[in-house]
Amino acid sequence: MTQLKQINIFLTLLLTVSLFACDTSNTSDSLSLEKQQLGKQIFFDTNLSTPPGQACSSCHLPSAGFADPDREIPVSRGVHPDRFGNRNTPTAAYSSFSPEFHLDTEEGIFFGGQFLDGRSATLEDQAKQPFLNPVEMANADATSVVEKVSNSDYASDFKAIYGETIFNDVDLAFDKIADAIASFERSKEVSPFSSKFDAFIAGDTNLTIQEIRGLDLFNRQDKGNCAACHPSTNENNDIPALFTDFSFDNLGTPANPVSPFLSQDLEFNPDGANFIDFGLGGELADISENGKFKVPTLRNISITGPYMHNGVFNTLEEVLDFYNERNNDGVIPEVANNVNTEELGNLGLSAQEKNDIIAFLKTLTDGYNNE
Known about the structure:
Blueprint: H1 3-43, H2 56-59, E1 102-104, E2 109-111, H3 123-132, H4 142-150, H5 155-162, H6 170-185, H7 196-201, H8 209-219, E3 248-249, H9 280-284, E4 293-294, H10 316-325, H11 351-361
Helix pairs in contact: 1-6, 3-6, 4-6, 8-11
Signal peptide: 1-21
Protein name: Cytochrome-c peroxidase
Domain Cytochrome c: 209-365
């Protein structure tokens, strides 16, 4: 066989593989888009709770940065108006970038997972839990959820993606419901990277002088030191800054005595007013992790209040005051063990410097229009 013929055969094979890859990619992209659209329908379906009335979007509304739109109460209300969760609902935006829950053996620190205590390793596992939580969507079991989806307007779309007989296997169908929701949560619609900060990084707009000062204070180790846990850059150049390192921390946050969770029926809070949220430590049954919660993204932070795991602070100003004055203000932590004493407290920020940091934080809200 001549060398020229060998080259021609190689090029032909290479072209065939390339075309096959393109066809496969196009098919995969189409299926991914269909799953995202299906997941969106499930995400916004208020018929999937018992009684009907609450959807995933009820506590993760796009206009509220995919967090709870009800800012009047510090924690989230379930489909039953007298039932409340024990925590302030975290944003679903950018949650898809959280790695699976794991222990970094070199640092000896836990990272990732879903929920504030990392109890779900993946988005898919997280998507199932609110359906069956008695203080959230309050369905009796997976069968109830699957039956509702099978009777929905989008049931034919569900079968087109997952198979005509998918509803015959409840466990598999419930897995696929979670799969579709997770597909939507991985979409650009949920994580658009469309803030003023993103436009600034892309060179499409400028930050104001105050916002620049705030960014500098945010990054400086001798000032705000916010970037220690909320890095404003990303080592992976393919992904913009996520403003979280997905680690777990006890900030020394005080308890929230006005949380309605504390006074609800003992069936849903046996400890009553004596309830203490141990966060990661409670999940792992490890006192060395007590009081630690997953570091949230600061993207959309100006529209996702109230703040902290128990919603104890209503405004960013209150949060900055706490970060700045902790150790001096006499505030008693809900969990006194394992408090981070190195990266916050005694920051010495002036009123102007706190305002500058808040001005920068407001540049992280998605939907910026530079026109």
